[in-house]
């Protein structure tokens, strides 16, 4: 699949990577300091009409002592600031993307050394008009991501995750098949996987690459799939989206079905990770099963728009981190995507050409309930967060949610719920 | 049990209720209007050093257009303001408790009329020193609650819920048995249940009364139990706390065990309700099973303190409302309770005499992700919220979380998890 378009692009890309990448084989040492909470900001505001950042508003208006309390109540323990190297700051400035760095710390233990991992969350706009040839659209996104991953490598990122269906516009709102299904690729050897394998080897980085997958080996069907690529460059495996929305313009069930890869966890050189794609974040049992399979970090690559979900966005991934004693990384696409053919949205409104505003705001939550500020609501961005994975077990030993979970009781109750003759337990006078 | 203390108190109480209650048999009509969000505030600030209200800080500092966006992102769709009658406002002023009223609306349907219910959430301090005789402590709390429930009735409240273990200080931090276990009562015919039955009949109100229960019929053991009393005055049933904490000063597992009443839902005249007590809010499966049994409103009477949980408080009950397409009512105790004998907290700090600050902040979440502002962090309060229960099914039909829940898959996975030979599904290179 994709043989026709692979060659020219791979060649161009290889040349580009050779030109820019040589000096970064060894990332510069990144010193850091835990300091007063300051939201770092790089890159200009590129749109008006949308609030750029919730946290900027809070910090811009609420004075000293009160902001500390507001922050504590809203966001938990204040994260440290990760001092990022100049080369990354300059790359962000030049590349016009936001760059933020935070630290989520754990206590010191006697028997385990800190297990420090840096995760990178990338949110980005599509790079060309949706009317451009498919190959050009993919090419432009690969190019954009190559730049941002290079910056991530200079920040010492170990695991990077891109947004849902990152190689394409989120065109499922249109219900059209062509050209959108042409963006689908093999998870094992499509051009995007090969591209990511090269980045992974080059930067010694685990890469989570959520794509539209075409499974030629099983009837040529489509899936919404995250490909997990080891820092060695090997394809470690794939995790398919478990829950498919049928809401608003998320007509995804016309394109692909509920995933059949279960709740796999991937043992990487930097910790055990899992991928809960987009709509799966609304399902607490989905997060739970990834956690029970051992995930220390659950990534949630997403694509979601303002009016529908923005007030849910800060709640769900964070609740999952709390409930499951793990880290969660919520990544949302950013910007507004325009489509040539008008479409309706089942909401009584006139036909239109866009899905609404993808509000970005990617963030990381810790098991202790603390979270980082989000990336911008309007700009491309790279969020680098240094985690100490020891915090997972420390929080579990403190709060004991799994010890007190009574899963035998719920296994029985859940089995009853799924029976056709299930009768709710309702007490009447 | 309790025979010695029942008589004098019942007599005093009956006299008091006769004196004050006659004119309120028919609550005055409550007109309301959906207006610009204004946080209503009654009653003075009674403590310094603690932030009184998160929402007051936000609204006090962030200007017009920005606060609307901040509110939308943080709190979802703006609730309407419920106009409360003067008699209630005066009672709150005189009784020195905060009174707030909001409306969470649903769309109009063709085949169902709006199913309007008013819930009342009451948070309060203990009313006497913890060294006072047990009977005096209970008496003072009954008296306080009688005043607040009377105010609730003038606001047209149909279902009222009190905080966890409302008839006593939250003394489990001490690990002492006497006198604290003397606060335990029969759920079916203890003095507190009789008190609540009288209120229920008088005001035509469903009352959720979370108490320390002593079960004489089963070996005289203790439970943490919510008694649900119908608006007819009948004891509809009881719901025991399903998950018991072992964290910080919540030494509750020394006093009572995990509940054995399952996930009962109570069909009342005002909708189907359930009670998820305190620590159960950390367990998504607990909320889920109440919802699968049909609960439209899940009450979460709690007792929790600042440093430990305050950043989790706005997340968990709200996530449960979203994930389960129902309303949730989170109620926390307020104030700081002092105990005569010093105790330690397993945190390396010196012995001390209090549990920390119970931060109140009771609030209601709607299935669409919107929520009301919270009550004060420092004062007693009554939060009256008018709900249209039709919003539950409307949100379910829109978001489809139960339709897309794949419960058969999870029932199988959960059953596997509970087996001794369960092996996590981990992919290695």
Describe the structure.
- The structure is a homodimer of 429-residue chains.
- Chain A is α/β, with parallel strands linked by helices.
- The first copy, chain A, has a single domain, classed as Carbon-nitrogen hydrolase (Nitrilase/N-carbamoyl-D-aminoacid amidohydrolase, 4-Layer Sandwich).
- Helix content of chain A is 30%, strand content 23%.
- Chain A is built from eleven helices and 16 strands.
- In chain A, a hairpin with a 5-residue loop joins strand 5 and strand 6.
- In chain A, helix 1 runs parallel beside helix 5.
- Chain A is globular, with a radius of gyration of 21 Å.
- The N and C termini of chain A lie far apart (64 Å).
- Chains A and B meet through helix 2, helix 3, strand 8, helix 7 and helix 9 of A and helix 2, helix 3, strand 8, helix 7 and helix 9 of B.
- Strand 16 of chain A pairs parallel with strand 8 of chain B.
Q: What's the gist of this structure?
A:
With 429 residues, chain A is of the alpha/beta class. The first copy, chain A, has eleven helices and 16 strands. The interface between A and B is large, with 83 and 83 residues.
What key phrases describe this protein's structure?
16 strands; alpha/beta; 11 helices; Nitrilase/N-carbamoyl-D-aminoacid amidohydrolase; about 425 residues; homodimer; disordered N terminus; 5-stranded mixed beta sheet
Average pLDDT metric of chain A: 90
Largest sheet of chain A: 8 strands, mixed
Radius of gyration of chain A: 21 Å
Proportion in helices of chain A:
25-40%
Which superfamily, in CATH terms, is the homologous superfamily of chain A? Carbon-nitrogen hydrolase
Secondary-structure element pattern of chain A, one letter each: HHHEHEEHEHEEEEEHEHHEEEEEHHE
Strand order of the largest sheet of chain A: 1-2-15-3-4-5-6-7
Q: Helix/strand/pairing class of chain A, anyone?
A: alpha/beta
- In terms of DSSP E residues, the strand content of chain A is 15-25%
Query: CATH class of chain A, please?
Result: Alpha Beta
**Major interchain interface with per-chain residue totals:** A-B, 83 and 83 residues
Domain unit count of chain A = 1
